[in-house]
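Methods — Computational structure assignment.
A single polypeptide chain was analysed. Its primary sequence is given first, followed by the predicted tertiary structure written as structure tokens.
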Amino acid sequence: MIRIHKKVFLIFIILGLIVVPKNGYSQTVKVIETTPTNNQVVSHTLDKILIKFSSPMKTNSFSIIEVGAGETPDIIGMPIFKDKFTCVIPVKLKTNTIYSLGINSKTKKGFVSEDGIPAEPFILTFKTTNPNDNQQQKEISQNTKDENFQQTGKQSSKGTPNAIQKTIIYNFYLDKTQGAFWLLVPNAWKVEGGVSETLFQGPRFNFSIVQPEGWCAIRFIPGARYMPINEFRPAGSVDQYGNVYMPYMEPVVYLRQILIPNLYSSGTVKEIESKEIPEAAQALKRFYDLIGIQYHQIRVAELTLETTKEGNVYLDRIIVYVLITTVMENIIWETQIIQVSALKDKLNEVDPILMTSLASFQINPNWVIAKYRAEQIRSEIRMRYQQEILEIQERMYKNRAKVNDEISKSIGLELSNQANFLDPKTGEMQTLTSMYDKTWTDGNGTFIQSNDPNFNPNDPDIQKRMGISGDFRMMKRK
């Protein structure tokens, strides 16, 4: 792409050397509307995708590109234009599947306006529903205590022996607020929140996953953007944009002095361990570098705490990610916090499940890029892209497997007792706890692990009792 210096561009305007298409439409051709919309969850019965452009298009030229974090829809017929603006793509979809497709790319420019201008590349991502979700969730929620816990030899939440459940089911969960992330959530666990945004501040993860009995939870807690103090902004002050003025602090010091006093009441917390996690910081920086967003430095640290709440003793792990940008020799830093909390006497039972869910957390790269572009429009504090966004996307999608791997690693926990399990049918790999003898999947985002030698997820009686359905196959541990 040719870059024009601002002064040169002003001369072009003064001389009137601006070319306007004969039809009056802009020289920029964009996708302005789609059905389904980006990140929408739709029925698998949807049989056509609609793409609407900003200018009249040639109706006999197409470029549909295989891109993104999901599968490419099965296109079952020739795309057609129902009018000069709207292309209809006939498709056949599967249940409980993430789909992505691209409209044009840097090198493939089949979608062209009547004036011969290629449409700007566009990526559509959406997910289909699982028809069994509502009924399954209802049945599992009603029978969780009777089915999941009694069948594994457990009693009530008090006096339960420290042993893992014999069988655990995970379901694929896509963020319902902005399609910003996805992860595996144990059956019947409650998910609340998603992504939160405030004016003049970037979006932050703000959600929780809670075990039905209240034994444990994972919480993503929004942090803040910290600016260097000056004569007009003393330490601790907050401006009209929500920025907090605070000298840079080492991550462990930040956790102890700023975060812990705000999260816990005084006298209820005992620190067990503190450490930095450089491997997580490196993995997260590689992820951002890969999609073209550059931070000067990323730091990750963790505190392990023993806390008392309502007479119960919990072990909490508090992790902070610190994203550091330098602007004119000043440090601007932002934080994101993760809290993993579990009853101390249930830790052996729930820790493998917590770690599996946390390790499966993945950020949607499309969402990160879109939000980063919006942030650049309203703020100059971030560094400019090093390459054009199209080059970034093309490189990202060529390295899709690498991106997903890096995101998984970037959670920043030294995960124990985890292993990769291979779906022999699709070749897809999933990280789950290794503390179960057998692992199954239906290929549609549901995973079951069990130590019960008599458990068979394809047994009709078991399926009825546990509220599951589908054809499950054994996964291979790698």
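Note: The chain has two domains: 6-128, 133-420.
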